[in-house]
Specification:
Number of strands: 16
Radius of gyration: 32 Å
CATH topology of the largest domain: D-Maltodextrin-Binding Protein, domain 2
CATH class of the largest domain: Alpha Beta
CATH architecture of the largest domain: 3-Layer(aba) Sandwich
Largest sheet: 6 strands, mixed
Length: 307
């Protein structure tokens, strides 16, 4: 028995003083109404209504129960109405996790643009550099350049291609010969993003592709660590272009091997979220906004939108 539905049926029967009228308004058969009242009385083990062929009246227990039913139904209806209203107006807090590189290059303008459309939505942003647990953290959406770190139950929508560049500090390059080809990198101190072991860096220019095996003097899964090491004159690092744009412009870091494009270092910034069937209107609205924005907007040179 659906007790809440039975309570609604009971209240409507009393309000209309008729099983037939209640059945007509509720869109069910009179037999279904009779059965619902009978099951409710059986569940409560007490009679709620005195019924004859012509009259219908409440028992003492029925009057007490009716009062409680009306209170519960009114509270539930108010709660549902409030929930519907809030989802239409898109209010509340969006819990966002973002990889540090995107925080530095594009997240703030994106959130600002969304808030101009939905002022009732606020944001709580958590930045990460290595990995984060989206479920345990209670995040609604996550921006990441490595979706493989997350579970397969999440939806992943690619947004941008993020180019990688080789950089070093002017001090480091003044001490060591500046490399002019990938083949000369073996004579340099390299700062690599890697869990362990050996990696390969791949480049391309007018003459074709170049593959270089690298065994970094400093290995870290953190881009922030590699950038800090490069700024401390420790060697040459491969980093996302948006992360070092400001340092390149002011000369704190220098672009190395500018005539070569990194061909095996392009990363995709993606937005991750739960299954669409589990999304609130607020989260769905934000995801649609983000995807549409990167599909339609002309990206800056350092960030290329995925079409």
């Amino acid at each position: 028995m659906n007790q809440l539905q039975a309570m609604r049926v009971f209240s409507r029967v009393v309000e209309l003083a008729s099983f037939n009228l209640a059945a007509r308004q509720l869109g069910v058969s009179p037999a279904a109404v009779t059965r619902s009242i009978g099951m409710l009385e059986a569940h409560l083990n007490t009679r709620l209504l005195n019924r004859t062929t012509r009259t219908l009246s409440l028992t003492e227990a029925g009057r007490e129960y009716l009062c409680g039913c009306r209170t519960i139904i009114e509270q539930l209806d108010e709660m549902e109405a409030s929930l519907v209203q809030s989802t239409r107006q898109l209010r509340g807090t969006l819990h966002v996790a973002s990889v540090a590189t995107f925080v530095q290059s594009g997240l703030a303008p994106l959130l600002a643009a969304y808030r101009t459309l939905h002022e009732g939505v606020s944001f709580e942003v958590t930045t990460f550099d290595v990995r984060i647990d989206m479920v345990e953290g209670g995040f609604d959406v996550c921006f990441s350049d490595n979706p493989a770190l997350f579970g397969s139950t999440l939806v992943c929508r690619p947004l941008l291609r993020v180019p990688q560049v080789l950089v070093a500090s002017p001090t480091y390059l003044s001490i060591h010969d500046r490399p002019h080809a990938p083949s000369t990198l073996g004579r340099h101190t390299l700062l690599c993003r890697s869990e362990s072991g050996q990696r390969c860096w791949e480049f391309v220019d007018r003459t074709g592709g170049h593959r270089v095996s690298v065994d970094g003097a400093l290995l870290s899964p953190s881009y922030a660590m590699l950038k800090a090491a490069a700024l401390q004159d420790m060697g040459i690092a491969m980093l996302p272009r948006p992360m070092v744009e400001a340092e390149l412009q002011r000369g704190a870091l220098v672009h190395v091997l500018e005539d070569f494009d990194v061909s095996a270092g392009q990363e995709h910034l993606s937005i991750l979220y739960s299954s669409p069937g589990q999304l609130s209107m607020k989260v769905r609205s934000f995801v649609d906004f983000v995807v549409d924005k990167y599909r339609s907007a002309k990206p800056p040179a350092a960030l290329r939108a995925v079409t």
